[in-house]
Design brief:
alpha/beta, Rossmann fold, 7 strands, globular
């Protein structure tokens, strides 16, 4: 019998895939979403089953209220409740504010921030049915400091996630805990242009006192800790998984 039921948005690859596999290895039933990359979603589910886990995936556009509402409805038909929601789905954009078209600004905020709002809103009925429940939102060091390479749109969206996390921690207590994880650079496809040579990788690693770059599994470990009952008295917090990188 599964220890609980988990939903991870954007679980088909990168950080999301690592989170899915972490829960699967620990005997949780995992549902995850993908948006465009069906092949990656199928590969993630294959890995889940190879780990002895159970679950399924669905296609969802977290920026679309209709897609989120329909998706959570389908999930609710397949599982009795949700113990854990991980709002991971996100996109990044690089460029100065003068180079940022309004449609790009709106898209980044609609996925990274509005997506967290929508999925949380429509997942709440399933979370409230669970004997215990928590939400973990994936923010970023970019939401804590503006001195990063990401755009103003990305920084604003991730700062918004932190604000939303803190408000929901108050609003949903005591039944549901809400926390966030704020990574620095993580070795994923989303930032591959910054670490595609050894020279670039070393330069990025030097930004961190630990002189390394996080792996997706590092983020998954933090998410698992905050999501599960072992952190029962932690809510409204932002856990920085940043190798000591605080201001750059």
């Amino acid at each position: 019998m599964a220890k609980g039921y988990v939903l991870v948005t954007g679980g088909d690859r990168g950080i999301g895939r690592a989170i899915v596999l972490k829960f699967a290895r620990n005997e949780y039933y995992v549902v995850f979403t993908y948006h465009r990359n069906l092949k990656a979603a199928e590969e993630t589910l294959k890995l889940v089953k190879e780990e002895g886990g159970e679950g399924f995936f669905i296609r969802m556009d977290v920026s679309s209220e209709e897609s989120v509402r329909e998706g959570l409805g389908k999930i609710g038909e397949s599982i009795p409740y949700l113990n854990v929601l991980v709002n991971n789905a996100g996109i990044i954009y690089f460029g100065s504010i003068e180079e940022t078209p309004l449609d790009v600004w709106n898209k980044v905020l609609s996925v990274n921030l509005t997506g967290v709002f929508l999925v949380t809103k429509y997942a709440l009925p399933l979370l409230r049915k669970a004997p215990w429940a928590s939400i973990v939102n994936i923010s970023s060091i970019a939401g804590q400091t503006g001195n990063v390479v990401a755009s103003a749109a990305y920084c604003a969206s991730k700062a918004g996630v932190i604000g939303l996390t803190r408000r929901l921690a108050v609003e949903l207590a005591p039944k549901i805990r809400v926390n966030a994880v704020a990574p620095s650079f993580v070795e994923t496809d989303m930032v591959k242009e910054f670490i595609d040579t050894e020279e670039k990788r070393k330069k990025i690693a030097e930004l961190h006192p630990l002189k390394d770059i996080a792996r997706p599994e590092d983020i998954a470990e933090a998410v698992f800790f905050l999501a599960t009952p072992s952190s029962r008295f932690i809510t409204g917090q932002v856990l920085g998984v940043n190798g000591g990188r605080l201001t750059c």
